[in-house]
Amino acid sequence: MKLAGEIRSSGVAVTLVVHEHKWLGRGIELAMLAEELKAGDVGLEFLFMLSMALHLRDQEMSRRDIAKRLVITTGTKKGRHPSPATVMRMLRGHDEQAAAAARA
Q1: In sequence order, what DSSP letters do the residues of 4-17 get, joined into one string?
Q2: pLDDT value at position 47?
Q3: What global pTM score does this model have?
Q4: How far apart are CA 14 and CA 18, in angstroms?
Q5: Which residues sit opposite 17 in a β-bridge?
Q6: CA 34 to each of CA 19, 49, 50: distance values in angstroms, whole numbers, following the listed order
Q7: Residues in the chain with pLDDT < 50?
Q8: Distance (Å, rounded) from C-alpha 26 to C-alpha 24?
Q9: CA pair distance 83, 66, nearest whole angstrom
C-alpha cells in the first residue's frame, strides 16, 4: 500500500492486479483494503473473471453461458455481464499467451 501510494503521488496511475481475492484477504479485511485503495486513487483489478472463464470453458460451457455467469468488477460496466464476444477475446488472448510461453 505504501509503495502504491508513493508511486501514485508522483502522478502515475497505479492499479493493483490480483489473481483472486483470496490472496488479499477475506470479508471485512478485503472491503477495508478496497476502500483504502480507492481513497488513495489506486485501482484494483481481479483476474478471477479469466480464471472462472477458463474453468467454465473446461466444463464445455458455451461462450454465451460463460458470459451469463461472469460479472464485470471494475470500470464503467461494473456489475454487468460481459458479452460473448468479450469472453471469446479474453479466452483467445489467454490461449495465445499460453502458446507463446510454451514455444519459448
Answers
A1: HHHHHHTT---EEE
A2: 63
A3: 0.53
A4: 13
A5: 45
A6: 15, 17, 20
A7: none
A8: 7
A9: 9
At 59, list the grid cell. Answer: 466444463
Helix (H, G, I), strand (E, B) or coil at 45: strand
Give the pLDDT confidence score for residue 64 in this predicted structure.
Answer: 94
The three three-digit cell numbers of residue 8, written as one number: 501514485
**Amino acid identity of 25?**
G
- The pLDDT of residue 19 is 61
18: β partners: 46
For cell 477475506, the residue is 26
Grid cell in block for residue 61: 460451457
H helical segments located in the chain: 2-9, 27-39, 48-58, 63-69, 84-103
The three cell numbers of residue 46 are 481481479
